[in-house]
Design goal:
Helix content is 4%, strand content 36%. The chain is mostly beta strands and 1427 residues long. β34 and β35 form a beta hairpin. The longest helix is centred in the last third of the chain and has 31 residues, at 1077-1107.
Length: 1427
């Protein structure tokens, strides 16, 4: 059955402080909202006690719940109505809630403490007429002059005490004054007093205060009058000072009354402070000060949330309040105050923690906050579910980890048992009893009725009914340690097993008493820690003053503050040097002494930061932007956090001209991530590298990256002119197109766009480089009439087209090779009736919101000049959304600029002509897709859920941004445990653009993570989403394999070999390999069997696939492996002599295809290192090698379903902003000439790795199918370097893990290509003849061909065991980013012999799973570049 829903129950109106008048009626409002089926009953409390109103005729409750007083009773000795009131709403069988409290005050009897007196006043001066009454009666006072009501003004005003101020007196002010108190049950008037006005004598009179300001406390939002009345002659001028400055009047806020008193309305917290009234008459100055203190009523920062829970769970109601003075918080359950106890605790000042829930804890809990300025309340409901009812799958965020542990992963619990549950666990014993903890062990049930049992231990203090629960962390685990117990106290324990059907029977109760605390050692005094090196800390401490016997050992606990997991090590002495720590990282340390009775009292934590060091990784994402003929802009990102090793103080840039050895250097400040290098030579290639610096020195540099300055500084503020000529030469199945550039050579031309088609030039489009003058359009139909258009383009847009047409030769006439020129497409025709529609309509995209529409009019003369009064109407619309309206515009020219369009949107345009009363029909439509611009909104609906049975793994889901403004090429998931951390401190996960879900693995348990997502298209990054938080569960889940229980934990960064068994006396260490020889023999036999079988499968597969390799591919392979002779490269006249393994990265453009790799993408993979399990070394002596210990299990061949990232792995190599996204428009484009492209270049990705020159297979399964590069390399063990995993075959749009210097081997990736933006082997073959510079190259174009993703694999190897201290530094991966500017030069590959990696190892064949096809957008080249 489903969980009972939370009840809608709250106050709609709450009582407010009220001033009542004796004898009059009074009303305290209160009204509650509840479900119609369950009406709330309202009662009232006075001064904390429920009122009995049954037979009370004077007071009763109205139908809406308000309390009505027919007449208020109040006398000197009888005050039954004055007091503090609170209304309580109750729903039977559910609970109660209490309102805020309100004070009912009754106005007192009018009495005058002082009355007006006979007064004289000089003209122009000020005077005060006294009339002092009770403060609550001041609002009821008024003044009369000569028995007529006195009208108050800024000259005549009343003080807070009730007194009257008369300022700047005139003769009209003379008369009889009195004050009256009215409307308080009885009226009373003061004595009358005469005010006489005297003429000014001119004599000097001393300055003195008649009334001066006094310090006062007010509530924010109220008003205040600070009196300052001064008399004297000459008449003084009064000014106010506040905060050291003169206070200026401001309308509606600050006003000076009567020339001296200060009135401030609508007070804010900024108004608090000391005010000074200064009076000056030229002869003397006097001043008086007063302090204004402001109070802020309590306000909720976070309110308690409704909670579902089960019995024995622990929960926390959160309540955060603000106010001034700081509010006090108390909790109420069903109207009764919650008294703190062992089970009800206030934590973090205001939060209520309830431990060991019982059914009677159900109800409404309220957080009441109060200070001198007011009080507020907020309620939340607790529902305790029976075990047969499912907890909701997504618990509220207010639940603590203890609670979320008990939500069955994924399903949220099972509604009804599907089968038999386990019997009771057997032999429950307390195997270890201490003062504050007890360790329980047991045996499995006699009838488990299922595999992978989990256990819950319920415990309670003797004499209480409240039980608490602790769960085992892994399936099959049959021990648990219960912490935070009281010393010398008896407890009851029982154990329950769970299988897939639910909770089983409980074991019999076991009673155990904890030990008395006096027996264990006290804290070790004088704990000191000093960092000696960047990776070590030396600690020392003294013996505890209260040892209570001989100290046996000390346990040192240490925590990496950036991660939070506490680890420990046992020590026999009073000093220790902790090694293997992370550089420049804060650690906390504490020490616990152990004697024969157990662990003692812990010392306080001390915190120390390891020393900084030079960076161990180069900066990331170096890009070069050629600015002009003399300058190049460099941009980069800092090294990954774990490679910075300290605060980055600056960056060093080295650059050189071409391949010269002499270098120049520049430096920048630590936060500057760009540098403009100027004063360079024009038309010259430069190489750059950047390295990061700390106070300790300079770290490794990036690879050399090249760019070439422009030859000249041309204009790119407008589109290029029309090409000066266009010639076509038709053949049977192709047309050779040639042209000359625009006559105006001062405008930048970045390339040419060729359009062609039968009858229309818009069927196919090809872009070629600006240096090209010839192009062959292939795969055409014979005897067909093609229209061809040519436009020059630059970054502003495309220029004016030039048209030509040609008829391909018939099939029977294949050898004709003549120039055939056809008439221009525009020929004048007789003026028809009706008008002929415009022809040749073209849409030229100029920007993300502008398209230029051009057309021709056949009813005009050949020169297309308009001489009459005709005009053209352009209409356009988009189909997204479907109901968009058609828009139109009129023009008298043959083109129109359409602006205000949406980015990355396909628009259709058509034109009609109007001449007088005659109009044409609409023309043929032309289409244009506006350019992309960066996303203007963030990804939507970001949700984070825990993966079923894997509490360390979370799944992030989201929806694309509503305003993507382009094809989303990727997302970046940022996550952190600190929501306020700087953006560059968040861990990032890059995800390809066609994925809307992603897994992150190996998170820390019981930790709150915050997630943000940012979308990217080809133009850049959009805004980040709001942070979403998720707390990981407190315990491990139930799907780890049995031997994972010990072996799959990340190794502790302790000293080498310092691994301790989990249980004393157990022969099995943390490696998971047994300590007896029988296990060794069994493991060796299994590994040899599996290895032999795998070798046979791979050899047979390789033999079969090799036979299918075509002769064409063999030639390419032979060419690519050739190490002799010079290779001529298209577009490059340099000769390069590569070594045996040569993979040449020419200036090839990567072009996208509108083809998703998966019609149903479910989960993306991020090849960031992780700990996994696959192969256990046969030699058990490897356990003693700490590096092999932590590098085991480096490749998980069987887990192809979801490749997931781990935080642990990322400590070794964490990429920042490493997302290879293409910036090309999403249409198939044929790159015919691999030359310098000024339009778009790709920073190729290189993978430093060792190559095996003997093993390389390339399988071609036909066009459009994946190709597998597999290689068999003599490597005996898979190895993990610094927690980084071997490179997986993953879609290469995502960043690849770094290769390591000498511990990985990769197969040579043979580069084959189809023409549609894919790659050809860069060596010249007989099928790709090389042309001298004066011959037009004849290129083939296959617009229909499918390209194939390039795939490369690297398999890491174990370093020789004779060097146990050797650490392979991980080189950071260089992400692929779209760049502008000339590309890098070809990269020569250095190779090394695989034989240096331990010749005595037996070969092991590793098969690598094939990756899915990936879109062209995501392709990158991988090169081998081993140091």
């Amino acid at each position: 059955s489903a969980a009972q829903p939370f009840s809608p129950f709250w106050f709609t109106v709450e009582p407010q402080d009220t001033l009542a008048i004796r004898g009059n009626s009074a009303l305290l409002n209160c009204s509650a909202h509840s479900d119609a089926a369950m009406m709330a009953r309202i009662e009232w409390k006075k001064d904390g006690t429920f009122m009995s109103l049954v037979s009370d005729e004077r007071r009763h409750i109205l139908p809406d719940g308000s309390l009505f007083f027919a007449h208020v009773v109040h006398s000197k000795h009888n005050k039954p109505d004055e007091g503090t009131y609170q209304c309580v709403a109750t729903i039977d069988n559910l609970g109660s809630i209490s309102s805020r409290t309100a004070r009912l005050s009754v106005a007192g009897m009018p009495r005058f403490a002082s009355q007006p007196l006979l007064t004289t006043l000089y003209l122009g001066n000020s005077q005060v007429m006294a009339c002092e009454v009770n403060s609550d009666l001041v609002p009821f006072t008024r003044w009369e002059k000569d028995r007529q009501p006195l009208e108050l003004s800024t000259r005549l005003f009343q003080l807070p005490s009730g007194a009257l101020v008369i300022s700047n007196a005139s003769e009209a002010d003379a008369g009889l004054y009195r004050c009256l108190v009215e409307n308080v049950g009885s009226s009373k008037s003061s004595d009358e007093a005469q005010l006489q006005i005297l003429p000014e004598t001119g004599e000097e009179r001393k300055l003195e205060f008649l009334v001066q300001p006094v310090s006062v406390t007010k509530v924010v939002g109220a008003s205040i009058l600070l009196p300052c009345v001064v008399t004297g002659y000459p008449v003084p001028h009064v000014r106010w000072m506040f905060g050291g400055k003169q206070l200026e009047e401001s309308e509606g806020h600050v006003e000076v009354l009567g020339g001296g008193s200060l009135q401030i309305s609508n007070l804010t917290e900024e108004d608090a402070g000391i005010y000074t009234c200064m009076a000056d008459n030229g002869n003397a100055t006097i001043e008086a000060q007063a302090e204004l203190t402001l109070q802020v009523p309590p306000q909720f920062v976070s309110r308690p949330a409704n909670i579902y829970a089960r019995e024995s769970m622990d929960i926390v109601f959160e309540c955060e309040v603000s106010g001034s003075p700081a509010p006090t918080v108390k909790w109420v359950k069903n109207g009764d105050a919650v008294i703190p106890s062992d089970y009800f605790k206030l934590i973090k000042e205001h939060n209520l923690q309830v431990l060991g829930l019982v059914k009677s804890d159900e109800g409404f809990y309220q957080c009441l906050a109060e200070n001198d300025a007011g009080n507020i309340q907020s309620s939340a409901q607790l529902i305790i579910l029976d075990h047969g009812i499912a907890l909701p799958s997504s618990p509220p965020p207010s639940l603590t980890p203890n609670t979320t542990d008990h939500v069955t992963p994924g399903s949220g619990g099972v509604a009804s048992p599907a089968g038999p549950t386990p019997s009771a666990p057997r032999d429950v014993v307390a195997s270890l009893v201490s003062t504050r903890f007890i360790k329980l062990t047991w045996r499995p049930p006699a009838e488990p009725n299922g595999d992978e049992l989990t256990y819950s231990v319920f415990y309670s203090q003797e004499g209480t009914s409240r039980e608490r629960v602790v769960n085992t962390s892994r399936p099959g685990e049959m021990q648990v340690t219960i912490q935070n117990l009281m010393p010398d106290t008896k407890y009851r324990f029982r154990v329950v097993a769970h299988n897939s059907n639910g909770q089983g029977e409980s074991s019999a109760a076991l009673k155990v008493a904890t030990q008395a605390e006096v027996q264990v050692p006290g804290p070790a005094p004088n704990l000191q820690a000093v960092s000696n090196t960047p990776s070590s800390v030396s600690l020392s401490w003294d013996k505890p003053l209260t040892g209570n016997g001989e100290i046996l050992t000390y346990k040192l606990y240490y925590t990496d503050k950036s991660v939070g997991n506490e680890q420990d090590v046992d020590i026999d002495s009073q000093s220790y040097t902790m090694t293997g720590l992370r550089k420049n990282t804060e650690y906390s340390f504490r020490v616990v002494a152990n004697n024969k009775h157990g662990p003692g009292v812990s010392t306080e934590d001390i915190i120390v930061r390891t020393l900084s060091d030079v960076p161990s990784a180069p900066p990331q994402n170096l890009t070069l932007e050629v600015q002009n003929s003399k300058s190049i802009m460099l941009r980069w990102q800092p090294p990954p956090l774990n490679g910075q090793n300290g605060e980055i103080t600056g960056y060093k840039i080295r650059y050189r001209k071409g391949s010269r050895r002499s270098e120049a250097a520049e430096t920048t400040g630590g936060t500057q991530l760009y540098k403009l290098i100027d004063a360079l030579e024009r038309g010259t290639e430069y190489a750059f590298r950047v390295s990061a610096m700390t106070v300790n020195g300079t770290g490794p540099a990036t690879e050399w990256t090249t760019a070439e300055t422009f030859e000249s500084d041309l204009d790119e503020s407008r589109v290029p002119d029309q090409p000066s000529s266009l010639h076509v030469r038709p053949l049977v199945n192709s047309i050779v197109v040639s042209w000359t550039p625009p006559e105006n050579q001062d405008i930048v031309v970045r390339g040419y766009t060729i359009g062609y088609g039968i009858g229309s030039p818009h069927a196919q489009t090809i872009k070629v480089d600006y240096k090209q003058r010839y192009y062959t359009i292939e795969n055409l139909d014979p005897s067909s009439h093609y229209v061809i258009t040519l436009k020059a383009f630059n970054n502003v847009g495309e220029g004016i087209p030039v048209y030509e047409s040609a008829i391909t030769r018939p099939q029977s006439d294949p050898d004709v090779d003549l120039y055939e020129l056809f008439p221009a497409p525009y020929t004048p025709v007789p003026d028809p009736s009706p008008m002929m529609p415009p022809v040749g309509v073209q849409a030229s995209v100029l920007s993300h919101d502008t398209i230029k529409v051009t057309w021709a009019d056949n009813s005009l003369p050949k020169n297309q000049k308009i001489t009459d009064n005709r005009f053209y109407t352009v209409r356009w619309k988009t189909n997204i959304p479907a109901n968009t309206k058609v828009k139109m515009a009129n023009t008298t020219s043959l083109n129109h600029m359409v602006t205000g369009l949406k980015p990355n949107t396909l628009y259709e345009f058509s034109v009609m002509v109007t001449k007088g009363r005659r109009t044409s029909t609409w023309s043929m439509t032309a289409q244009g897709t506006t350019f992309e611009t960066i996303p203007s909104s963030s990804p939507k609906d970001v949700t984070v859920v825990s993966k079923e049975n894997k509490p360390r793994t979370i799944i992030v889901n989201w929806q694309p941004p509503s305003e993507a403004n382009g094809k989303i090429t990727g997302y970046i998931i940022y996550y952190s445990t600190d929501v306020n951390a700087e953006v560059h401190d968040w861990v990032i996960e890059p995800v390809v653009g066609n994925r809307l879900t992603h897994q992150i693995q190996e998170l820390t348990l019981d930790t709150t993570y915050y997630f943000k997502i940012q979308a990217r298209n080809s133009k850049g990054m959009g805004p980040m989403s709001e942070a979403v938080h998720f707390r990981t569960p407190k315990t491990e889940s139930s799907d780890k394999m049995a031997n994972d229980q010990a072996s799959n934990l990340p190794p502790k960064p302790g000293p080498p070999g310092n691994h301790h068994p989990q249980d004393p006396g157990t022969a099995v260490g943390k490696s998971g390999v047994g300590g007896n020889s029988e296990n060794h023999i069994l493991v060796i036999v299994i590994i040899i069997s599996v290895g032999a079988f795998t070798i046979i499968v791979v050899v047979v597969g390789a033999f079969l696939c090799t036979r299918r390799t075509t002769s064409h591919q063999k030639k390419k392979r032979a060419a690519s492996k050739s190490s002799n002779g010079s290779h001529k490269y298209k577009g490059n006249s340099k000769d390069l002599k590569p070594p045996d393994l040569w993979i040449h990265h020419e200036r090839l453009e990567l072009k996208p295809m509108d083809k998703s790799p998966d019609p149903n993408p479910v989960m993306t993979e991020t090849p960031i290192p992780r700990t996994s399990q696959d192969i256990t070394p046969a030699d058990s002596s490897l356990d003693n090698n700490p590096h092999l210990q932590q590098r085991r299990n480096s490749y998980r061949g069987h887990e192809s379903e979801d490749s997931m990232s781990t935080l642990a792995g990322r400590r070794g190599m964490r990429p920042k902003m490493m997302m290879p996204f293409d910036a090309q428009p999403p249409q198939p484009v044929i790159s015919a000439h691999p030359i310098h492209s000024l339009d778009n270049h790709h920073h190729h990705y290189h993978m430093g790795s060792l190559a095996s020159p003997t093993r390389s297979y390339l399988y071609h399964q036909g066009s459009g199918h994946p190709r597998l590069h597999a290689c068999a390399t003599p490597i005996s063990h898979l190895d993990r370097v610094d927690s980084t995993e071997s490179v997986r075959n993953t879609p290469s749009s995502e960043p690849l893990p770094p290769a390591t210097t000498s511990s990985q081997a990769s197969c040579p990736s043979e580069i084959m290509a189809d023409p549609e933006g894919s790659y050809h082997g860069s060596t010249t073959t007989e099928e790709e003849p090389s042309y001298s510079s004066n011959l037009p190259p004849h290129r083939s174009a296959h617009p229909h061909a499918h390209a194939h993703p390039l795939k490369s694999f690297a398999v890491p190897a174990i370093p020789a065991t004779s060097h146990p201290s050797y650490e392979s530094p991980a080189l950071p991966s260089t992400p692929l980013l779209a760049q502008t500017g000339p590309p890098s030069h070809p990269h020569v590959v250095k190779t090394a012999s695989i034989g240096t990696l331990g010749r005595t190892r037996t070969p092991m064949v590793v098969t690598v799973p094939n990756a899915p096809d990936v879109p062209e957008t995501s392709k990158m080249l991988e090169d081998v570049d081993s140091v």
